[in-house]
Amino acid sequence: MANNRFNKYIGAIALGAALTAVTGCTDTWDEHYDSDVSVSGTSKTLWNYIEENWDKYSRFGTIAKNAKYYKDNTHPVPTYTYADILNGGQVNTLWIPDNDVLSEAEYEKWLGMCQSDKVEDGYNVQQQFLGNHIALFRHNITVAATDTVKMINGKNLIFDRAEGTGSLQEIPLSADKDENNIALLNGVIHNLKGIAPFRYNFYEQLKFTEPRTKFGEYVVSKDTTYFSTARSIEGLPDENGNPTYVDSVYFTSNRLFSGRTYLPEEGREKWQMAEKCFGAAINAEDSVFIMLMPTDQAWDAMFNKLQSAYKYANSYEDKTKGDLGNKTTIKGLDPDSLQRMSLGMDIIAPLVFNIHKQPKKSDNTMWKIEEFIETKGQGVDYLLNTYGDTLRNVDDWKTTNLFNAEPVLMSNGYAYMVNSLEFPEKFLTPDVEVEIESGYNFYNTEGQGTQFKVGSGARRWTFSNTNYKDISDLYGTVSNNNFYHLPGKDANSAPKLEIKLEGNSPTAYVPSAQVMSGKYDIQVVLVPRWYMDIANLGAIPSDYYMKDTIPYYYFDENGVMVRDTMYVPIPGKIDTTYVRELASRNKYKFNVSITYNKDGSEKTRESLAKNVVSEGLKVDTITVATDFEFPTSYKNMRFSYPVLYIEGAASKTDVNPKVTDANPNPPRFVYDLVIDKIILKRKN
Q1: In Å, what is the CA distance from 304 to each residue of 59, 409, 594, 610?
Q2: pTM for this model (two decimals)
Q3: Do the domain assignments include residue 572?
């Protein structure tokens, strides 16, 4: 046998684009991968069989003799060809096209690529042709069954093992059973009556299609190669006692393929932005995705459309400690670099969709990719990408055509090469909604000696809009069925608080919205204080309902029947007069100011509104600033955000007004505030 020491390294190819092993070229690189595979009654290898049947397989054989084995797309092993692989100790199955189906033109194309000076040509011979016809281990025709076979180029091909009618990826095997299931020393040969079709996965499409698009350049730029000590073969130490390696193994991965965000293990504290990823391994051959692939036209159009919302400054205030510690300023930033990074990763993050993660169809069955492709997803109520929740609003989705191109079949799904990215405006530049009840969005600094104080009795309350429907239908629902009560630091003072203007994440799928450069209307949503009474009781008290009089009779102590009446709440009929009177004793008054990045400085608070009054009757959305413009963006910034300051403004006279004969029930304010959320409505 020409070489029986190949064995394990060929497995690195089968990982495909997921992990590519790049090994230092030495004469001993395959010596530790021997195989003692033997088959009773034969000593012939796969390559021996091809040589003995050269008239039938000369075209495939000539290509194999001239094709080098590549460890990745830029590193061939100079002394190792595919003839050596087929003659080696690793057990393989070969589906071999004969000269009748491998045309002269096809043969000349592959042979020319083997002999080309371009490294990528030789790699493509391996990946797109030879590696697409070879799989590790034996895959025999034993029973009529269909298997998915991992080829050594990493692709999953469908092998129909039915004798006489079998196929590989729908390319039929020879009808002559004597030409299939040929058992050899190092594997099995089947005669294939055609060329097994090769398809790129999404990553390969972006990386190897020429000319590479701007989107492709962005993705490939995130490739990272690192050295694997565990897989490398250590040699003798150098003169200083440091280890050396006779066989150095490196792995290349793309950091966009794992998780939703990426930060390096070391030096992450210096990264102003966590890098957004796809939330999916788009090179995974075992997955099925749909992916939008923007052309340069779409990429440029999105940049041009959103640039004004992604204006950055060269310095920001580090707000990670709020007002609890010394503030620091992050200086020396490159606004253009921040813009390119932030905008680029916001374009790429929502582009991938896993069919199995989409909501079920109307008949409660799961989507199949062919059904989704045929309808372009128009039957889903909302669309989930692998990074986050793209479209929850049904109307937005039904009037939006993201998949506005013909689908192109990849090895792991379908790609849409789109000339425009038709995401709804509110997805691209969303409103910022800060849910106060989460608690982390404001600072409870009681006892810290700082300026902004919230009393120790601050508390989140649960308020069921459904259970208290009689009230919520009339006086308003609260977001997420929660609100927050913010008392002053003592019984005779109003609360003072600072609120981080970063959007919440209502579910695990929804990324937080952040303030972008441009105009917003700033709104404070207040909840009637008396909603706390209902939440505390767990039911609407009977006092809130109108009453009906019902007569009843009883006997007094003398045995005389007496007629009387009692008052019974009327179900569903809220006593609006009672509620209005209650609200008149629970009014709010407050001031609002803000700090934000203005000319690189956030040190000056700017007043937005003073002595704002809410009647306390309903869930009240009050606009405290109209068309307020943020000159710089905070989108994707890790340590910085604008801050909204809210201070209760009710005076002692407001809380305890003077009672007179002419005004026996004057309106009364309360010191504390009950807040649902802060909304920054984007003005596009």
Answers
A1: 52, 30, 30, 38
A2: 0.81
A3: no
